[in-house]
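User: I'm curious what two different proteins look like when written out as structure tokens. Can you demonstrate?

Assistant: Sure. I'll show them one after the other, since each token string lines up with its own sequence. Here's the first protein:
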Amino acid sequence: MRNSSMGQPCFRLIQNSLLTAAAFSLSAPSLKAQRDTVTMIDAQVSSSSYRQIRSDLGRNTTYIDGKVLQQLPVVHWDDLLKHLPGIEVQQRGGFGSQADITLRGGTFQQVLILVDGIRINDPLTGHFNGNIPVVPAEIDHIEVIKGPAAMNFGPEAVGGVIHIITKAYGGRAFWPGKKFSGSITGGEWNFLGVQAFASATDKKLRNYFSASYMRNSSPGQLLSGDSIRGNFRNSIAAISHTGRWGRNIVSTTRVSGSFYDFNARFFYTRSTADKSQEWIRRFSMQHTTKIIHRGNRRATDLQAAVQRTTDSFLFNPAFKGNHHIMWLWQAGAAHYVRLSPNSNRLQWNSGFQYFGRDIQSSDRGTHQEHEAALWSQMYYKGQKTPLNINGGLRLTLDALNRRNLTPQVNANYRMGNMSIRGGFSRSFRNPDFTERYVSTGLPGVLAAGRNLGNPQLNPEFAWNYEAGFDFSAGKHFTFRSTAFLRRSNNLIDFLYLKGMYIPANPKIDTGRSYFYAQNLTPLNTSGFEADVQWQGTIYRTWKAMVMGGFTALRFSNNGSSTGISKYVAGNAGFLANAQLILQRRQFFLGLNGVWKQRTAETALVINKEISRSYLVMNGNLSWNRSDNRLNLRLQCMNLGNRRYSDIMGAELPRRWWMLSVGFSL
């Protein structure tokens, strides 16, 4: 485990960063603003199970409109998310092949991914959480909730929540007319990308239909020092329907499928025999019904969903591959009551959730578990004082048949353009099926560097504290900052240990080293995050949108760890990410970049290393016809042609040029 020294250099950078942000905040109000499409300060977000004004939440949230995606140099989800302030994406392969998503120094299992209010976190492993079955063209907006939200959403919401809202679900479903848009992209190494989106609303504005499709494929670049290529063939398809039944009932149904085939060498191991290839198939169907009661003082949400994922993994052609089938069932109901008759000053909300998980695995066995929860929440907005308070409690009967209480309280006090907020909460997470059973069903002795599960793992718990300061200037500038602390017990992670230190197991050789799942000693994760968003007119016809931020982390465990933690220690001690869009008439320039500072590491057995820091930037130049019916784009990923990795040995793409043509009818 890396100790507190990991974050020491990072905290020395905070002072300069804050001074820069403060200087920017002083100059921003004098800039001429344009129409707000990205930074919606008073937008309604659903980070508390029901929709509230963003500034009233007492939380650090990021809201990004789907329109901005059209101008940024992104190809897949990992390209988008890793440039949003506060999100660290640890990519294993490019163009959506696989990526681990972390927030506030947590592990990738501690981030909850929602699509239209439905979780998609896979029961086998959090490695699949980045395979989000949504085509970028169908996005209405994205909400990022930084920090724990276990009281509202359940166990995985420890580090934060990423909520993708599609157009069918996000309130734009009943705009009249028909729409059809698409693009085709070609690039180096025989890259081919296709994206299409179609939607239609009937004449009575009662039914909305949409369909979307995306595919990215390439034989891939040659990996350094090897004859193996980083090939990928990834695609997503979805159809949606939203119906309005009378004046008070709206329902949304969405069916999606995703298909991922990619090179996976060193994604999970540090074995010289690793020549992995992986195939993932996911099918999901979800339904939501919203009932608005008379008087608009009460509303009821009903949700149900099923998700089936299959994963085939071939470690080496000389070995037998592993095959897994995973099922996730979920159902829920929530009831919202506005207690104050003529305002939203006082609200009470409560609900029920159920989750069922099932796996059938060649190396992990057959397992099934169930989880149910009740939650209740109150929201108070001061009438004479600008104080807002959110508080609630969740009771969970978890998959290990244990009862867990997760309270949470957040408060926000506004003073004109400034606000002070704070909160505390308890969060927990049960070990997933991989952490408990990976490799336990394989025959013979495991090769060195393999992962080994631990069926005796206990749930992890944490107490979370945070305090923040926000400043806004109209709808076009915001500065948000938060200091946070997470005190974890029984944190689950893999430690790199000699076999002699692992409990007696016929799968191991005492002279070899393995990544063995463990409950770690108490771990404190402290940090500071700040982000800035601004859009406006720079000079005459030049317009701009800027979104950027940084996160500094520090880990402390009293020096009692006995090995290297695989995933917690993989977090960057300092992370900075930013996005910029410049517009002059029909021309757009998009830039984004990420800088990570972390502890360097070397794996001699495979002759690979993790550098102490890296900066990677992407860019694009596009032209839109005045009626937006035609778009031409030149795009480059990894402008500096940097060789880098987020995961030991899993090399990410170098410079990659692409040219695309898009249309809209």
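Here's a second, unrelated protein for contrast:
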Amino acid sequence: MSIKEIYNSVVNSERIQNALKNWIALNLSLLAIMLLSRLFFMIATYIHFQLNCSYIIDIFSGSVFDIILLCHIAFFTLIPYVALEYYFPKFAKKTFSGAIVLYALLSVLLTIYFCNTTKPLDHVILVYSPHDVIHTAISSVSVSIIAILFFITVILSSFLVLRFILKIKCSGIVILCFLIISAIVSLCVNYQKIIRKEYGFDTKTEFYLAVNQVSFSIIDICDYLEKEGEKESTSNIRDEATTYQNLHPQFEYTCYDYPFERKNVGEDRLGNFFRTDTFKESPNFVFIIIEGLGKRLTGTEEQTFIATPFLDSLSKNGLYWENCLSSAERTFGALPAIFASVPHGEKGFSNIWKPIPEHNSLLKDLQKNGYYTSFFYGGSQSFDGQDEFMKANNISFILEIEKNSINKNKKYATNNRWGLDDAELFALAKKRKSQENKTPFADIYLTLTTHEPFEFEGIEPYEKRIRKDAQNIVNEKERENVLNNLNVFACFQYMDDCVRNLMDFYKTLPEYDNTIFIITGDHRMCPLLVWDDPLMKYNVPLIIYSPLLTRAKTMECVVSHYDITPSIDAFLANNYDYNIDEICHWLGNSFDTTTEFQCKKRQAFMLNNRCVSDYICDTFFVCDKHLYRVGRNLLIQKVDSVELLEKLTKELNNYQSLSVYANQNNRLIHNLSNRK
């Protein structure tokens, strides 16, 4: 008996045969749209990032993902589709065609997302509120004619593909072969395991470029929802606390139920750099936290293009740590790490707990010692729980843009959709300080202009100047990166000018000579990431500048945002009439001030999706199940050591378990109000 006769004997119904033909035509249409979407993804990422040849090969090699996924979809939709079309032929065809068009639509949106974040969409959309998700999407994406044409082209192409392929008549042998292939692939290949384990790729970047964006997002979100239902076990907290505390013998911990609580005996390593006998009063502080400020912005190891000339001049005349690390991939981690040195918790310290767990902080210590504290931010203070954190730390004043200025200031609504431009924010702050300047003070600024979509009023002259200066860059890669991101570097030079003007204002105040300026980035910006170095996204500069400084110094040693609070508290307590609590929960230590490169940090990092999968331990770095050795300039090299990777991964998991436990159970520190 021939194959055709076998086929006809199995499916002798004409209606079933038509359903099978339409089923295979729809699946072939889906495959064509998958491959077409991959082509558009390559075009978009090449334009946005100027990808080299190897990355383009990675994108097209990912077609294997599409084919395997198609086989799974075809196999598991066979019976449902045939049954549905048998009774409702028009409805079945339109429903599956609509699903294919929806796939094309999602592919376009995920391509745009990738170009803005350098990674596929994961469960990050579930850790933000719906309001914050919408606010982020609207604020970060700049709509252009090219983007609109790109969107329309993909959708029209999907309709044309469907219209063309659905007219193709498939023979019985083609249908049978397709059935056999899809069945074999589906039963023999675990697609979800391939995605979760990232089989076949050496780096995260290669995998992110190759993977099917839609399936990655769905699998990751489903995995997250499944894990959300699992409760953390706290039965081994004592053992976990013992393990963690033994890894930090430099600290004297008080107990196991409060695993991070320790004696506050930080060494003063800043005092030797300052004239502490010039004024009787303790110094004022100005913290400037700059959105996305990081090293190697031009994507080269030895950056020659000066994106921030004023900040560079401050670094040469102050204390400058080249290798400072943030605590998280995005802004949500900056304020808690810088001002409270607290562990991350499950989803970030400042935007999940109501009330926020009992904790100590630099801000509370400043308040108790008579400081007037102010927070100036040009966007929505409620985003990422910034207002909750500041209020929990008894902040004296928060600039409320939405209540006071949004109706009067068109810039908030039209110029930079995240909020006010830096110049406008600083103008409001200067007006406030001119009217009511209380001392001693600690002013905190969090800037915005160097954030997507990288727009501000008057950007054209900056872009023109940068285009001219870029012609003198010798390194071709660096020159191309600057020219291809004129708006980004224009925002950084604009920010630099704004900070210069802000500093000029403080020079007019009588308190300037007794003021210390601390400047850092909240994290390194994503669009100009150094693709092959995942540690760079946490690398931010740290500058301390003051007229009180006795000398300047540039240091290559690795420090962290977590070190800022313990360092300043120790400096003030050892040199002024300044009282601090005997007990603290600081994750950081006093600043290392070694000139040469060295790293003595044990620190975990939280990603934007609130996963804690990155960890640095001395000169080793764990990044999502890969192990690297860290060298000068935080350059990394992959290391093959299963034993060491497992050891450091256990340390990371142990920290995060304690971090979640301490925050969820209010076990960071004993109630401070009961302390004598």
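A detail about the second structure: The chain is about 50% helix and 10% strand.
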